[in-house]
Amino acid sequence: MGVKREALLVAVSAVTAVVMGAGPGLGAGVGAGVGAPGVRDAVVPEADLSHHGHVSLWSEQLTVRFESENHGPSASADATVRLTFSVSLAAGQSLPANCLRGGDRVVLCRTGQLRAGGRSPETALDLRTAGRPVEVVVQIDTHWNGGASDPNPENHRHRVLVPATGDPYVF
After folding, report:
1. Residue 152 contacts by C-beta under 8 Å, 6 or more apart in sequence?
2. Mean pLDDT of 125-150
3. CB distance 81 to 141 below 8 Å
4. How far apart are CA 167 and CA 4, in angstroms?
5. Domain ranges within the chain, ordered by starting residue
6. Containing H/E element for 158?
7. In this structure, CATH architecture of domain 47-170
8. Rounded distance, CA 120 to CA 114, Å?
9. Mind listing the pLDDT tens digit for each residue in 11-33?
10. 47 C-beta neighbours (distance < 10 Å), count
11. Displacement of CA 163 from its chain's centroid (Å)
């Protein structure tokens, strides 16, 4: 009974680690053994991610440009930035290779690997809204950060009111 119980605990710990984002892609000793029997004090990396850029709206054209930065101290193997819009986006739009639709009001974009002190290339989104809103609220945040702890989560969460003036609003 003891061997079966231990095997079950190992299986549950492995599934939990993958579901929580501490799966195989992070490397040995970086959160992969959290909760596994016999593993103590697993190292969880610390990566302070931030996102900066600008958003503009003119008629139904919504433009978003942003970069992500890792203030460290650890590297980030990958991260996902979520952009949530207060209006629906028109269907059938092309997105950059690192982005995909997460719903009619959500776009998700990969940052790729970010070394400590490093920046991602600029992500440029040229979107159309479904209709001609007079303003749009855009929320930008880190959806997933590779399982790292972030000591300063406020610098990757932004909420921007974008009137339909064509002017860039910075975040």
Report:
1. 48, 50, 71
2. 96
3. yes
4. 63
5. 1-44, 47-170
6. strand 158-163
7. Sandwich (2.60)
8. 7
9. 333 333 333 344 333 333 333 33
10. 24
11. 25
* β-pairing verdict for 123-128 and 158-163: unpaired
| Better pLDDT: 69 or 42 | 69
Residues contacting 109, CB < 8 A, separation 6+ = 80, 81, 83, 96, 98, 99, 123, 125
Q: Which two tokens stand for residue 124?
A: 């440029």
Gap between the Cα atoms of 124 and 128, Å rounded: 13
Per DSSP, helices labelled H in the chain are 2-19
Amino acid at 13: S
**By the 8 A CB rule, do 48 and 155 touch?**
yes
pLDDT in tens, 100-109: 999 999 999 9
